[in-house]
Each structure stands twice: as structure tokens, then as C-alpha cells.
Amino acid sequence: MTSLRGMDLNLLLVFESLYETRSVSRAGQRLGLSQSATSHALARLRDACRDDLFLRAPTGMVPTPLANRIHPEVHQALESLRRSVDEARGFDPATSTRRFRIAIPHPMGPVHAQRIRDAGLAEAPQVRLRFDTRTLADDAPALMREGSLDMAVDWVPAEEDRFVNRRIFEDGLVIAARAGHPRAHPNMSWAELQKEEFVRCQRRAAHRRLKVLSQHLWDLVIDSSLIVSEYLEVPFVVSRTDYLGVLPKSMAAIARMEFGMVIIDIPGPAIRVPIWSVWHEGRRRDAGHAWLRALVFREMQGAAIEDGLLAQATSPK
Question: So what's the pLDDT on residue 6?
Fold first, then answer.
């Protein structure tokens, strides 16, 4: 194992900034260093690693294979150190420079992310929040265990031990049709719906798919002739065709106002879809993470109240 004796560990901060900005000048600005000092640090890094690490290209500094290989380990080590120092000092949102990564695969994830980001900036102007709104991968629990993902907002709770699932609000499902659709109306029956064609989203892994879709509704859409990747694509398709599409109830207002769609209640008992915040219990005593959890909970409940999905917000535990 290579010894770090004699190596200036500040160089790891320079490496991280160079990797993330792909620019000597921007990396220096982030760290409060001159361009000359940053270039000198890069030269020392190259000597220490016996690799160029970054190559100049028209689009910026391109990392070498070695840089790509070591960056995750360096980033994780620095994040762990930042958390440890912050925990020792206590967490002050006004001065903290911590970074958090949040996965929000909920279909309204981009909207929720912007709301959380704006509220976070108002309280903690130097804290950086990064969001991933893709459909949550099965490796998310592992990412939360290792600390590279701080929390997730999902409609599928984590089943592994030592994870905390906190219900934020309850979403639902509706069916949408374009304005002027020749047969669509708000109170369509199962018999009427069975005569229509649907656009539907790609299935998630079977063990993570919403259980409500294994019932009558899934039977209705399983033979869809058009399958898209994400729910946000459904209104685009439905507004231009005679396809019907299933949407989360939280998207109904946008579908109605932005696209002029007909919103159809699914026949029978309302389909309820709990939305969860998910995080590893190892973060329970982390004051910064507690701030993050409260921020996400508060802002997403506020959005649910505005969407008519929640009558009154409650405090997170």
C-alpha cells in the first residue's frame, strides 16, 4: 500500500476540484487559489501519482483513466472527512459548505428539486445540493450505506435493515386524455377504458414496481403499443394523440393547466401511493443530515398541500 507520508493532503482537494470543474481557473476560484498556484498543485499531483491525470482538450481538462478510477475514492474520503469535521463543530446552515446528493425519482422530481434547492439556498447559501431525478436504481441502498447518496424520495420504500422510511405524503393515480379526445370524459368506466389504447412507462424491476399496478389498472395498460421511459413523457404523447395515459395525481394540475387535458378518475376505490423519504439510520446523529431531512420533508409537504394531496403538514420525526 502506498504511503501518504510527505504528501500534502490539500492536493486531494485540488484533484477533486479539477475533476469536477475540468478547468484549472475554475478549480482555483472554488478553492481560493490563483491559477498559478493551482497549476503548481496539479504538477505536484502528477508527480505523486506518476500520471498526467488531466489532459488539455478543446472542451476543457479531460481526466485520464487513472483519474477516473481514483476520483470516487478520493471524493468519498473527502466527503467523510467533511462530515466528521462538521459533526465535531456542529452544523450551521449559514456557514456550512457541505454537499448533499438527493435522488428524487418521483415524476415531479425536477419541480420538487428546484423548490428544495431554492429553499436550501435561502437557509444555507454555501451548501450544495445535487439531485438525481432518474428512476431510482437498485443500487441506491448501497449508495446510501456508503454515503455517496444522502437520501432518496421514492414511492418504493427500502426493505433492507437499518434504513428509515418516512412517509411524506400520499400521491395517487389518474388517467389523462387530450383536450378534444372523441371519447374521453372524467367519469369513464372500465368498459370504456378497455376500448382505448394507452401509452405507459417502462416497468421498473418487478420487485420494485408499484403493487397497485398488478391489479386491474396494470391489466389495462400492459399491452400498450407505446412505452416511454419516464412519466414526464406521457403528457407530451397524450396531448398529441388519442392515447390515454396514467399519471400520478400530483401531475394532474399541470396536465390540466399546461396541456388542457381531460383528467379521468380511475374507477373504483382511489389508488393511494405513499411517497417516502428514505435514508440510512447511520446518519441519524448527523446534524447536517437532520437539516437536510427536515428541508426535504417540509418543502415536499408544502408542494403536496398546494397540489391538494395533503390537508395539513406534519412535522418529521
Answer: 53
